[in-house]
Amino acid sequence: MGVVYNLILIVFIILATGLILVGIWYVVPATNLQYNEFKSNVSYGLPETSNQFYQNMRYPDKKITYSLEPDCDSEKIRAILEAMAILEEKTILNFVQSKNGQIIFTCSELPPEPEKSAHFVAGEGGPTEVLNTSRYSLIIAGKVSLYRSEKCDKPIVATHEILHALGFDHESNKKSIMYPITDCSQEITSEIINDINNLYSVNLLPDLSIERLSGNTSKLYLNFDITVSNIGLKDIENSTLIISSEGKTIKVFPINQLNMGQKKILSVTNILFPRSVRTISFEITTPENEPEITLENNHANLEVKS
Prior knowledge:
By secondary structure, the protein is of the alpha/beta class. It has helices at 2-21, 74-90, 156-165, 190-199, and strands at 34-39, 57-58, 63-68, 94-97, 103-107, 125-132, 137-146, 208-218, 221-230, 236-245, 248-258, 262-272, 279-285, 299-303. It folds into 2 domains: 28-40 and 205-303, Sandwich (Immunoglobulin-like), CATH 2.60.40; 59-200, 3-Layer(aba) Sandwich (Collagenase (Catalytic Domain)), CATH 3.40.390.10. The chain is 19% helix and 35% strand.
C-alpha cells in the first residue's frame, strides 16, 4: 500500500511540474492575507513655506462650505460675507453656506481665554483638522473667531482670519493683509492670490499610490508586502491591486475603499508562479478607470533574481 501511495505522489509531482513548464498558471490561495489600515494625521513636521503654516495647505475642493454661529451679529456677518466676496473675485475659490460648514465662524465681544484657544493655529482663525496625504496638507476643518469690530472701510480683520483658516500664516510685509498688525491700507498680495489659484487648480480627484513594495521568492512561491495609499483629494471606492507578468494576470486583490490620506498594507505569502518569470508587475486600478490626479504612482515592479 505504501509503494502505491508513493508512486501516485511521484506521478502527481511530475504532472504538476509539466503543467507549469508549458505555461499553465496556478495560483495557490495566500495562507496569510491581512490588511492593516491607518491614517496619517499632521499637526507638526511638514516643511513650512513662506506663506502657509504647512506645505501645500488646501481644502479638498475649491468650493468651501461655511457656517455662522448664532452669536454673530449683522455687522460681523456683513464683514464675513464681504471678505468672502473679495476672495471669490480675486481667486478661483467659491464659498457656500452650509449647516455643517468646513469653516465655522463664531463671534463674541471678548477674545477666548488662553486655555480655550488651542484650536487656533495663529491669531483668531486657522485650520482645526489637517490631514497629511503626502501630496497635500489637506484641511478638513477650520475655525474663525471674530471678536473685534472692523475699523476700516474694507473687512481687513475678517479677510485676515479667513486666510488663516485657508492655511496662510502671518507675513513680515507691512502692506500685506497677513501682517500681524492691522492697517486699513493693507491688501491681499499677489503672492497669496497666486498661491491659492495654483493650489486649487488641481481638481477634486483621488490619487492612488504604491508607497512601498518588498518581496522574496522561495522556489516557486512569491511572498510580498505592499503599502498603497490615496494621496489625492477625494475618497475612492472599490480599488483593485492586479499582479501580473508579461501581460498575464497572476492574482487580483480587492483594496476596496481608500479614503483621502488613508493607507493599506497588504501582506501575502505563497503565490505560485512559473520559473521563467523575471519581472512581476503590481498595479492599482480604479473602477472603470476613474480619473486620478496622476497615474505615475500606480505601478511598481519586483525583479526576480535567478
